[in-house]
Each structure stands twice: as structure tokens, then as C-alpha cells.
M15 family metallopeptidase
Amino acid sequence: MKARHVITPANPVPCARLASVSFDYTDFDGVTRNGSVVVLDAVAPQVESLFGELLLRSVPIAGASPLEHFDGDDAASMAANNTSAFNGRPMTGGGSWSKHAYGAAIDINPLQNPYVTQAGTARQEVLPPAAAAGYLQRAPVKTGMAEDVVSVFYDHGFLIWGGNWKQPIDYQHFEIGSRDFIRKLATLPKPQARAEFERYVARYRSCAHKTGPATPAADDDAPEDTALRDSCAARLRR
């Protein structure tokens, strides 16, 4: 990653606190392939489970290669419709470190889920540009769109979706929480950091999947309670 300009000594999280997660995924032709992402070690077990669930649900992924395959060039990764996580870079359009520089954010299927600035104005910009033709209209949901997987990401602790933002709108982007929480995870020893993140995930699941005498466990075919899901995510993320 150092040789390919994906990480520098200035990065807020060192190499020692990053983990590579390998997983199988189904591509848009229905072929099972192997991919990998690099993430903060504290979240790696949940990320592995997350992609396992996407495979079980047959959610297509166009490709998943670490950013060294693109020399750390986020635009090139998006143009290749590459699902990715760690990249030691500033925020797009800003100077602060991106959550990707902490290994605490994942971008999925950028073509189907573009990054949009100044939406609806003459200054609108769409990244990758090829997404402008078919993926700015978000309903009905098309194959590969993030709207179909928000609940999966939330269930694994990625409680912030850029598709809910107003400016910019970042449909491909999921992240776990505030910089303070991420820094805490990166500062704690790995076993403690993983335990802290597992508690974070468990609190969300307890809220979003409540069952009891008056609220029986949901049938698999029942419509998802997205209002409860979003309320729990907003209340519990930190």
C-alpha cells in the first residue's frame, strides 16, 4: 500500500491496525468470484459477515479489489465500478481525512450508486460520470443499488449511509460513526476494540429487531420496518 500511494506515514491509522478481509461475491453475470477489502481491524469480523450475507442474498457486486490496484486513485476505482474500503485520502471535495483513511467506510458498486454534488443544479457533478445516464433516478430500485442493502450494512455496524445526505449525496458510501468513536476503536488494543464494536452492533440489533409478546418475530416475507431501522440507526450511532 505504501508503494502504491494508498497509505503514508501521516495516515491517522497505521498499517498495524488494518486488516484484509477476503470474501466471495456474486457478480452481475451470476458468477461467484473472490474479492477483498482493507478495513480497521476492530470491524473486520463484522465486515466478513456483512459480505457473507450479501453473497447469501445474491446481491451483485461488480468487483472488489483493494485500492493499491488503482494506485490509490479513487476516481479510477469508481470508474471500474470497484467496491472498496480503506484509502488513505482526504474526503472528496474536502481537506479532512476521509473515513476511508481509518478503514471505517465502505463504498459499494459506484456505478449503480454515484457520488453527486450540487444535485439538481447547473453545477451538478456525478462520480463516476457514467452513472449520470442511468442511476440518478433512485426509484424503482435497480439491481446493485445500495437501497437494497442498507439494512445489511446497518446490521453490521455501518449505521451511516451517504444516500441520506443532502449535500453531497453519496449513494455508494457506508460508514460506522463519528470520528471520536473511530479514534477510540483505533486507540484501544485490538481485542478491546473488537469487543467495543460488537457491543455497538448488538445495541443496534436489539433496537431494530425487537421481539416480544406484542411484537412477534417478523416473517421473512413481511415488509421491513424501515422507519424503525432508521430511527434505531440515528439514535444509536456515535
About this structure: Helices lie at 44-56, 74-79, 150-155, 179-187, 190-208, 226-236.
